[in-house]
Amino acid sequence: MSMDRLLEGIAAKQNPTVAGLDPKLAYIPEYILKESFEKYGETLEGAADALLVYNKGLIDALCDIVPAVKPQAAYYEMYGWQGVKALAETIAYARAKGMYVITDGKRNDIGATMQAYASAHLGVTEVCGKNLSAFDADALTVNGYLGSDGIEPLLSVCAKGDKGIFVLVKTSNPSSGELQDRQLATGETVYQLMGGNCETWGEKLPGKFGYSGVGAVVGATYPAQLDELRKTLPHTFFLVPGYGAQGGGADDVAPAFDDNGLGAVVNSSRGILCAWQKEKCDGGEYAAAARREAIRMRDEIVARIGEIKLPN
Ligand SMILES: O=C(O)c1cc(=O)[nH]c(=O)n1[C@@H]1O[C@H](COP(=O)(O)O)[C@@H](O)[C@H]1O
């Protein structure tokens, strides 16, 4: 149920990481851009085609060693409906290759509108009595700061379709403390309260390995909070962004894991996408360079946490 498929993928591949698919034209090798622009002109359609070709090359190179991808919707929306089509095709391609797909949309709204987001990204949309899948990701990042009526619609969609959500709790950005670290009259911080909400919401989506379908986003840039939240949120699986380009390393993310080497999946986007540029290798090697970086990241983290075991 819920997050179990992600945990099974992590254990099978002995790799607790997710590759962030946040593509920009500046990261895409010249030969891909040239072909897409020749086909569709220097248009949004040409750019979106290049994104998709680039993503497919990455997915092909990573799918046997990395359990999940996280496309961030903004990088597709910036190319209009053509970009959004590339997002949908990226999700379908990655799922067909056996990867768990977390759409990073950080969505939230009031209940009725949230229901529409839930249908769009995780559930089905009814058309003339038929239930059709729109984006059909495995999980979605969401903003819980509108309150529980913005989360409830997701829980029923997740229960029906074996899907999960990751709720923003303590985000990786430098200013996250402006709101999230504020202390409430009860003495707890706002992020602690939100973390507690994840445990409560997760009771509706229990998982067979102890982690529910309601995960939490906690940044690699805040290792002390990762440590604290791992201890206080035993049923909440963490999505940990901030490794690599934002400065987080293996030592920072290690506290996010439990004694079985489970408990978190660590994201790297630019670190993987731009590996070929960092290595200064030929564009034709971009996918191989991404794979090398994914292996380096996996090995660095697994060396800290040990073997990953699924509890019985
Ligand atoms: O929800 C997220 O994924 C997220 C939450 C957060 O607190 N910080 C954060 O960086 N992210 C996302 O994680 C990715 C980080 O990208 P890199 O810094 O390039 O690895 C981006 O897609 C961000 O939008």
TrEMBL record:
<feature type="domain" description="Orotidine 5'-phosphate decarboxylase">
    <location>
        <begin position="16"/>
        <end position="290"/>
    </location>
</feature>
<feature type="active site" description="Proton donor">
    <location>
        <position position="106"/>
    </location>
</feature>
<keyword id="KW-0456">Lyase</keyword>
<comment type="pathway">
    <text>Pyrimidine metabolism; UMP biosynthesis via de novo pathway; UMP from orotate: step 2/2.</text>
</comment>
<dbReference type="InterPro" id="IPR013785">
    <property type="entry name" value="Aldolase_TIM"/>
</dbReference>
<comment type="similarity">
    <text>Belongs to the OMP decarboxylase family. Type 2 subfamily.</text>
</comment>
<dbReference type="InterPro" id="IPR011995">
    <property type="entry name" value="OMPdecase_type-2"/>
</dbReference>
<keyword id="KW-0210">Decarboxylase</keyword>
<dbReference type="Pfam" id="PF00215">
    <property type="entry name" value="OMPdecase"/>
</dbReference>
<protein>
    <recommendedName>
        <fullName>Orotidine 5'-phosphate decarboxylase</fullName>
        <ecNumber>4.1.1.23</ecNumber>
    </recommendedName>
</protein>
<dbReference type="InterPro" id="IPR018089">
    <property type="entry name" value="OMPdecase_AS"/>
</dbReference>
<dbReference type="InterPro" id="IPR001754">
    <property type="entry name" value="OMPdeCOase_dom"/>
</dbReference>
<keyword id="KW-0665">Pyrimidine biosynthesis</keyword>
<dbReference type="InterPro" id="IPR011060">
    <property type="entry name" value="RibuloseP-bd_barrel"/>
</dbReference>
<dbReference type="GO" id="GO:0004590">
    <property type="term" value="F:orotidine-5'-phosphate decarboxylase activity"/>
</dbReference>
